[in-house]
Amino acid sequence: MRMKVPYLDLPAQIHALRPELDAAIARSLDTGAFCLGPEVQQFEREFAAFCSAAHCIGFNSGTSALHVAMRLLNIGPGDEVITTPYTFIATSWAIVYTGARPVFVDVEEATFNLDPRLVEKAITARTKAILPVHLYGQPCDLDPLLEVARRHHLPLVEDAAQAHGARYRGKTVGTMGEMSAFSFYPTKNLGACGEAGALVTNRADLAARARALREHGSSARYLHDEVGYNYRMEGIQGAVLRVKLTRLAAGNIARRHIAQRYHALLQDTPLILPRDAGYAESVYHLYTVRHPSRDRLKAHLETWGIGSAIHYPLPLHLQKCFSHLGYQPGDFPVAERAARECLSLPIYPELTDAQIEHVARSIREFKHW
Questions:
Q1: CB-facing half-sphere around the CA of 290: CA atoms within 13 A
Q2: Is-contact 57 80, C-beta < 8 A?
Q3: 174-225 pLDDT tens trace
Q4: pLDDT-derived band of residue 332, with 50, 70 and 90 as boundaries?
């Protein structure tokens, strides 16, 4: 039986929230506060509380928030930042925008997150920070990373763009390094109706400077203390995110339920399934399986009306834009293997049990293992 299962169904999410979203957007239109303003300020307070953090600063994207994080650490030309080669490229853009160099370290086989055992070997006199990513909503192993950072007097910045509400040893991610960056791109667990992001920190000095840098380097109107950017969050996005934030915890629970259903239905297939690390509670931004026949499996799912996606088909060290860094195929074998084998299945709170079962049934019918 053929059943359409889109990889992502944003219209279904919006439909359920439409009356509240309409009211929130209308409120913004009535006040005329389109850049920052009261809705953004209130969202910042509410998201900081959600993260159990002291400060949240709203940005126009997660990329901008990460860029400013690098600026707050005074990273610049000649500096190095250790990060992962297996994630969305925006993580490395934040480093490159400052004139610094991303230094890649391979990822763990089980989680695809930065391998703490390899980080210390990559530290040089030019290293100025460590930038791990909580990939696919799975927290990276922070304790050993923080220990390396402390031992070498390096700040650690969390890229939590895919991990809103994920927990590491009982604590919400985004609060354990010097600061963290979140993306509210529409596909995220907490997504805006457009672009938006945030920087989260417990340090008042970093928060104050971040607020200035996002607004042309200005701490007072028309007075510019340093070169800044037009990185302000739109007022309408703040209003939208306030509505969606009230649903985030329930949405994350739904994602974990769907992941558990996939676990049960696919456990005896040849796929390698994602699992929570013992120290972590993933929010399953993505449910990413692995198999050497990934491309054939993706094509097979399409014949069953099922959407899927590849995150990410080419690791960052092999991207053309980073050819000048001198990395070669084989330098990071775990990341390269993941890029060849990973496939993301549909996972979002609106996914029905019937759709989950259809996805699992179609996988079990795959003949080219």
A1: 17
A2: no
A3: 999 999 999 999 999 999 999 999 999 999 999 999 999 999 999 888 999 9
A4: very high
Which uninterrupted H or E stretch holds 206?
helix 204-213
- For every residue of 89-100, DSSP letters joined together read THHHHHHHTTT-
268-302 burial, b if ≥16 CB within 10 A, otherwise e? eeebeebebbeebbbbbbbbbbbbebbeebbebbe
Classify 180 as helix, strand or coil: strand
Scanning the structure block, which residue is given the tokens 């990513």? 133
Same topology between domain 10-105+112-242 and domain 248-364: no
| Extents of the domains making up the chain | 10-105+112-242, 248-364
Does the structure show a pLDDT above 90 at 82? yes
pLDDT of residue 367 exceeding 90, the answer is no
3-class SS of residue 159: strand
What CATH number was assigned to the domain covering residues 10-105+112-242? 3.40.640.10
Task: Give me 71's structure tokens.
Answer: 């600026």
Please report where in the chains the tokens 């084998």 appear, as a residue. Answer: 341
Residue 256's SS3 state is helix
What mean pLDDT do residues 273-282 have? 94
Provide Rg for the chain, Cα atoms: 21
Determine the topology of domain 248-364 in CATH.
Aspartate Aminotransferase, domain 1 (3.90.1150)
**Residue pLDDT, tens place only, 338-362:** 999 999 999 999 999 999 999 999 9
Query: Quick check: 206 and 178 in contact, CB under 8 A?
Result: yes
